[in-house]
Amino acid sequence: MTATLRQTANTVANSMIEGASMASALIGGAAGAYLGYQLAPIAWSDGTRVLFAGAVAVVGAVAIDGLAELVLAPMRRLMRTRSPLPSTRRSAPAPADTLDEALAQVVTATEEDAARRAASAAFRIDDSDNFLRDDDRWRGYEDGEASFYLAPGVVLHHRAERGEYKHHFTLLTGDGEQPVAITGMEQIRHHLAARAAGLPAVPVTATGDVDGDKDDVLDDDLTGIHAV
Questions:
Q1: How does pLDDT run across 84-107, given as a tens digit for each residue?
Q2: Distance between CA 80 and CA 131 in Å, rounded?
Q3: Which of 9, 91, 161, 211 registers the highest number of CB atoms within 10 A of its CB?
Q4: Interval 156-192: pLDDT, tens
Q5: What is the DSSP letter of 96?
Q6: Alpha-carbon gap, residue 169 to 205, rounded angstroms
Q7: pLDDT grade for 218, boundaries at 50, 70 and 90
């Protein structure tokens, strides 16, 4: 049986198990309602008999569902054992046969590692959990740095200092503007809003300065910067 057929069979089996559980509760409830209404004294009013039937229906549903679980619970455990939750990560590549192949694998792993580290560290400037922290939108490089495409000509760059556990986010543009250290989403918004309005796109820094000469990150600090 192929993986696709096995997954389909497991899905159908799980659906049947859950359907059986729901059906048992419905059958128990219906039977309880019928018996409750029939057993209620005729002297009672219709409203009282209906309430009594409803109470018996709940008891019947719980009782029958509990009995059904004695059979369905082992079946659920069996299905979980046979069909573990799928992993979001792909399997590791086969061992390399040559040094060049090994190098190519390590390069790919390094780039993926850089992208994931950038996304993981992005909480320092983005706590929204659905933008900069999406590692699929980061592009990692062999030197361990990564970039996040924001707009035409605008990229957010990430560089980590492993020994000191520091992460530097820098806004880069393709038109020769001074790179600026980014410490919050409001700085990125300021820059993009300025560019959209046709104004000089100089992002505010952490201290509120808009003078490129006072930026926290200098060109000399941006080693290995990747072009926009």
A1: 544 455 677 888 899 999 999 999
A2: 33
A3: 9
A4: 999 998 777 789 999 998 766 788 899 999 999 998 9
A5: P
A6: 12
A7: very low
**Among the listed residues 31, 91, 99, 17, the one whose alpha carbon sits nearest the alpha carbon of residue 60:** 31
Predicted TM-score (pTM) of the model is: 0.51
Q: 66 is written with which tokens?
A: 């509990």
Q: Cβ of 121: how many Cβ atoms within 10 Å?
A: 19
- The neighbouring-strand residues paired with 158 are 146, 169
What is the token pair recorded at 131? 């933008």
